[in-house]
Amino acid sequence: MVSSIGHRVVFQGGRVFDGTGAAPAEADVTVADGRIVDIGRGLDGDTAVDLSGKCLLPGLFDCHTHVAFTTIDLMSRLQTPFSYRFFEAAHNLRSTLQLGITSIRDAGGADLGIKQAVADGLVPGPRMQISIRMLSQTGGHGDSWMASGVAAEPWSVTYPGSPDALVDGPDEMRKKVRELIRCGADVLKVATSGGVLSPRDNPRHGHFRDEELEVLVAEAAAAGLGVMAHAQAAEGIKAAVRTGIRSIEHGIFLDDEAIAMMLEHGTYLVPTLIAPEGVLDAAEAGAAIPTASLQKAREVIDIHRESFRRAVAAGVKVAMGTDCPVTPHGQNLRELAAMQRGGMTPAAVLVAATKTAAELLGVDADRGTVQPGQRADLVVVDGDPFAFDSLAQRVSRVYMDGRPVVAA
Predict the structure, then answer these.
(1) What's the CA gap between 28 and 389, in Å, rounded?
(2) Residue 5 — very low, low, confident or very high, per pLDDT cuts 50/70/90?
(3) CATH topology of domain 2-58+367-407
């Protein structure tokens, strides 16, 4: 069987973390025609890659990022030309890929053109799933209306392929979901609570009623798509879980009932632990962050960490996501150390960034582990893959379909 396959490359002499949670172990990995074909000891191939002193990982995932945006500084965004975001996206995609993140779920901002540019090889970047724009109720997390009466938020600007997504009531929800699917959405995103950076809402308040969310989930399911929920308030989390939404993003105010519901329904948590910290970091660096947003960020940090610890202890499924650029693109792997501090073992953290993330995105048959038949999306790191604080600096090579896309 091996002889019938094309040119074979064997990664040899190092350790492999296969994404299943097993400890890194010495092994060779053979790749041909973009796929992993064998794992074992003493393998040979047409070409060898020496991994002495290194560890081979599955390509990493970031299940919550915004590659079309680079800063949360409101005044900076207001003074930036609209089309500049597409060039920023190219830069941010490259920065993400250099960390070994070969798959992302964009949680708002990236449109079909950005995704297609990556798929066609015009710009280097991870494989993408896009939500295009977050569905929000009037006065919700996606409503940029300010007290002055001005909608002062550049990412609220609509254009072909990125429609306005403020909806109220089941009928508006149904039509807008269909419109986003027409525009190329791979996943639907909805805000079932207020948030930190939005001007006129409270993260403790749940948004949308069940009948609105049920229509959203039904229309997404009819197109074979899942739904992700920006959900910080406990009631917003419960409404999302109750109506069949696949993942909870942030989950700041998780209570025991919400955690039990997530376990019962198999709902995933994408915690984005570094996001509130990123708001404060940006302000300290001089970013123009509204006072109300800074206050909300300060209030939620400790609550967020404790909610995450309880969710992990209970066994909720966790997938890695960052909410970059709330924390700058290129610092995504800070989330791994935050997850470990929240009670996950190092191996569980990497599983959350590989196998579990692939399961959430519905691509686990294709990627997320180092196993025969999987795409050869691979990351080579120097030294210990569990030393998360320095991991970003030790990514030495990144492969997609067995082709090198990043080399130190």
Answers:
(1) 27
(2) low
(3) Urease, subunit C; domain 1 (2.30.40)
